[in-house]
């Protein structure tokens, strides 16, 4: 298996790596949640998204939607009366990969908790 990044890992190689860019995107606090909401709830207007996700400010929602649209993960369709956001095929193809990480986390939560407890008890 060849490395994703050449070793040693330099700042330049990290910044130009496509995987780093995508991981940064999906690591943002609201990105995955918005994608899942659009998958499960279908196309949605801004106000519906705002009401659906508690704790998400309108400013951050706007920024997140613009970023997802820029990356082609969602589409934005404006009509005379409202704007509607929808998951694109590209966004839909990313979701199973992200959800697999979430499922892995749930499945292995007891092991992670045990490892953390063992680590912390060894530090005292």
Automatic annotation (TrEMBL):
<dbReference type="Pfam" id="PF01638">
    <property type="entry name" value="HxlR"/>
</dbReference>
<keyword id="KW-0804">Transcription</keyword>
<feature type="domain" description="HTH hxlR-type">
    <location>
        <begin position="17"/>
        <end position="113"/>
    </location>
</feature>
<protein>
    <submittedName>
        <fullName>HxlR family transcriptional regulator</fullName>
    </submittedName>
</protein>
<dbReference type="GO" id="GO:0003677">
    <property type="term" value="F:DNA binding"/>
</dbReference>
<dbReference type="InterPro" id="IPR036390">
    <property type="entry name" value="WH_DNA-bd_sf"/>
</dbReference>
<dbReference type="InterPro" id="IPR036388">
    <property type="entry name" value="WH-like_DNA-bd_sf"/>
</dbReference>
<keyword id="KW-0805">Transcription regulation</keyword>
<keyword id="KW-0238">DNA-binding</keyword>
<dbReference type="InterPro" id="IPR002577">
    <property type="entry name" value="HTH_HxlR"/>
</dbReference>
């Amino acid at each position: 298996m060849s490395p994703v990044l050449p070793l040693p890992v330099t700042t330049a190689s990290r910044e130009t790596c496509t995987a780093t860019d995508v991981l940064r995107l999906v690591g943002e606090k609201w990105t995955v949640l918005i994608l899942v909401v659009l998958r499960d709830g279908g196309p949605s207007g801004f106000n519906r998204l705002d009401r659906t996700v508690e704790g998400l400010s309108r400013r951050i929602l706007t920024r997140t939607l613009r970023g997802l649209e820029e990356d082609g993960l969602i589409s934005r369709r404006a009509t005379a009366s409202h704007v509607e956001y929808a998951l694109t095929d590209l966004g839909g193809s990313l979701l199973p990969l992200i959800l697999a990480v979430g499922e892995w986390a749930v499945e292995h939560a007891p092991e992670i908790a045990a490892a953390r407890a063992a680590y912390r008890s060894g530090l005292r």
